[in-house]
């Protein structure tokens, strides 16, 4: 019975019962719901559920080679988040995280744009409560800005579907070419959720404001759902190479100077998405495999890094680099897990990031697009600087902050331990990952050129970090505010627009006042000219006369201006 339901639906239904289930039993219930949802993946490839409504065939459940790896990792991420948040007794956050994961999984299996839109918006509505759960003023404001972006993305997606339907075209969610109005609507809808340049402010703004457990859940689903959608709809779109390359490079500079370590990871997340977007833009079978593999392993090692920083925040109450340091003595297990996550995201050989990133770099090298290849090399070095070294160094080493604490709760350590083991296992035995990718490949990441080239890059980046630290040229970790690209429409636009709007409104009120004064003068003049206003024209008649005179004045003025 459960196998016939679209995966994710059972998780959404199960989330409705979470508020009524006692703590501890609640977590077991959530794991059971995730397991039942995952059972639906055994149905196999094909279209398994169609709903005929209003003359349209809505494909509720489509499974194929592209949906499978995303469905697997989304279920795994949902289970890890349940374990990581086991100590948390707030049912609101558990309800939101389970329904959020369920909506993302259901969206992956949507076969048409209307069904995709429904789950697209469901991920926005459910995930915003993970940010609100912090109960701070910053979180409340960030959640509202987050919701505006996410809902806007859904509206654009619906606009694209509506234009296709109005033109009598298919609304099936499949590959499309950029050029039509509908395709551009859909492209920008996916771009917002994938955090394209100048559309990425919501990510760094909102994710660090969520709770320690909420940030882990947020890091897994929204942006990877967008990568899946881009791989489905726009593989081989050359614009994506340019967009993805800028995504890999620009966040490096922000991450290096950021003091909030969870915000550093948010910039790093944006950087990693760029690699996936470039791979989708290349569009070859090897490149799509690279995008999917990168998304798969990224969910694990990024969750591990967010979990380790969440554990630090949970134990000491701060995640500012300037206030941390020396925690390796009190939190050794968390430190080891953080280092494993850092080595994975930096693509060290024998770690998961290496076997995934190699696919993308090889596919890009095959295209001969040299400039993009070197941009990604630079970005790879930057990843080591801000996530591979900065995160563990300033959190656990650097100077001794004097903070006294103990190791993270057992459930947090179990979740981090599972993720750490997966990072190593995938790196040591990549064939398991490669076997679930969309296209069959015979690829060997551990050849001499890949290994030596990556090690040279990593050693160079590490030496650069050491030299910058020794020479005191590395940006100091001090309390600061890093302005992101959203400054242009959050600050600059109101700063410029509000005075202009006030000026226009002042001119408008002045004009209304002048016209009212002229109307009064004309009215008085008409009453004066008429010896007996009572026996003269009626009140409505005089009003028409006044309006006619005003209209004549306006027409004369308009003609003079036009001439």
In short:
With 563 residues, the chain is an all-alpha fold. The protein contains 20 helices and two strands.
Q: Give the topology string: H per helix, E per strand.
A: HHEEHHHHHHHHHHHHHHHHHH
Q: Report the span from N to C terminus.
A: 77 Å
Structural class: mainly alpha
Major sheet description: 2 strands, antiparallel
Relative helix content: 55-70%
Indicate the radius of gyration in whole angstroms. 29 Å
Q: So how many helices?
A: 20
% residues in beta strands: under 5%
- The poorly predicted ranges are 533-537
Residue-averaged pLDDT:
88
Shape: globular
Q: For the largest beta sheet, what order do the strands appear in spatially?
A: 1-2
Record field, number of beta strands? 2
What is the strand and helix layout of this fold?
Layout: H1 9-17, H2 25-39, E1 46-53, E2 56-63, H3 67-84, H4 91-108, H5 113-132, H6 137-166, H7 181-193, H8 201-206, H9 212-233, H10 239-257, H11 261-282, H12 285-316, H13 332-345, H14 352-367, H15 370-396, H16 410-428, H17 431-434, H18 448-470, H19 487-529, H20 539-562
Antiparallel strand pairs: 1-2
Description:
- The protein is mainly alpha-helical and 563 residues long.
- The protein contains 20 helices and 2 strands.
- The chain has helices at 9-17, 25-39, 67-84, 91-108, 113-132, 137-166, 181-193, 201-206, 212-233, 239-257, 261-282, 285-316, 332-345, 352-367, 370-396, 410-428, 431-434, 448-470, 487-529, 539-562; strands spanning 46-53, 56-63.
- The protein has a two-stranded antiparallel ribbon with strand order 1-2.
- α6 (137-166) packs antiparallel against α7 and α10 packs antiparallel against α11 (261-282).
- Mean pLDDT is 88; it is low at 533-537.
């Amino acid at each position: 019975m459960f196998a016939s339901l679209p995966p994710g639906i059972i998780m959404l239904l199960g989330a409705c019962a979470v508020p009524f289930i006692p703590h501890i039993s609640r977590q077991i219930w959530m794991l059971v719901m995730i397991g039942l949802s995952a059972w639906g993946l055994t149905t196999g490839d094909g279209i398994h559920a169609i709903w005929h409504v209003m003359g349209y065939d809505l494909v509720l459940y489509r499974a194929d080679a592209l949906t499978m790896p995303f469905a697997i990792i989304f279920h795994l991420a949902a289970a890890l988040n349940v374990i990581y948040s086991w100590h948390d007794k707030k049912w609101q956050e558990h309800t939101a995280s389970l329904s959020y994961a369920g909506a993302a999984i259901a969206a992956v299996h949507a076969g048409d744009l209307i069904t995709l839109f429904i789950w697209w918006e469901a991920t926005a509505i459910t995930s915003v409560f993970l940010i609100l759960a912090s109960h701070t003023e910053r979180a409340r404001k960030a959640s509202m800005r987050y919701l505006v972006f996410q809902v806007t993305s859904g509206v654009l997606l619906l606009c694209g579907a509506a234009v296709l339907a109005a033109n009598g075209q298919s609304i099936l969610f499949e590959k499309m070419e950029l050029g039509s109005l509908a395709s551009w609507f859909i492209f920008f809808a996916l771009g917002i959720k994938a955090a394209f340049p100048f559309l990425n402010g919501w990510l760094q703004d909102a994710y660090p404001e969520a709770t320690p457990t909420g940030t882990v859940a947020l890091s897994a689903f929204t942006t990877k759902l967008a990568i899946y959608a881009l791989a489905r709809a726009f593989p081989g779109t050359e614009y994506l190479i340019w967009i993805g390359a800028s995504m890999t490079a620009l966040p490096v500079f922000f991450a290096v100077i950021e003091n909030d370590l969870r915000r550093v990871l948010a910039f790093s997340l944006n950087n990693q998405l760029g690699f996936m977007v470039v791979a989708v833009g290349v569009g070859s079978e090897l490149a799509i495999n690279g995008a999917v593999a990168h998304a798969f392993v990224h969910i694990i090692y990024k969750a591990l890094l967010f979990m380790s920083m969440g554990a630090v925040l949970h134990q000491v109450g701060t995640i500012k680099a300037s206030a941390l340091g020396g925690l390796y003595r009190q939190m050794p297990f968390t430190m080891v897990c953080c280092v494993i996550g850092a080595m994975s995201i930096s693509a060290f050989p024998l770690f998961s990031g290496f076997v995934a990133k190699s696919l993308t770099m090889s596919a890009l090298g095959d295209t001969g697009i040299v400039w993009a290849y070197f941009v990604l090399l630079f970005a790879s070095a930057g990843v080591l600087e801000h996530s591979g070294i900065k995160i563990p160094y300033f959190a656990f080493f650097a100077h001794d902050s004097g903070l006294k604490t103990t190791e993270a709760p057992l459930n947090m350590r179990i979740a981090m331990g599972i993720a750490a083991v997966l990072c190593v296992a995938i790196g040591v035995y990549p064939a398991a990952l490669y076997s679930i990718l969309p296209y069959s490949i015979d690829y060997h990441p551990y050849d001499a050129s890949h290994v030596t080239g990556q090690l040279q890059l990593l050693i160079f980046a590490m030496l650069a970090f050491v030299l910058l630290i020794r020479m005191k040229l590395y940006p100091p970790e001090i309390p600061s505010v890093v302005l992101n690209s959203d400054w242009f429409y959050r600050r600059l636009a109101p700063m410029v627009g509000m005075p202009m709007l006030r000026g226009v409104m002042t001119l408008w009120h002045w004009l209304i006042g002048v016209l009212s004064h002229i109307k009064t003068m004309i009215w008085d003049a008409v009453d004066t000219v008429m010896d007996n206003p009572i026996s003269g024209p009626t009140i409505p008649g005089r009003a028409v006369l006044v309006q006619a005179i005003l209209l004549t004045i306006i027409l004369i003025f308009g003609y003079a201006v036009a001439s």
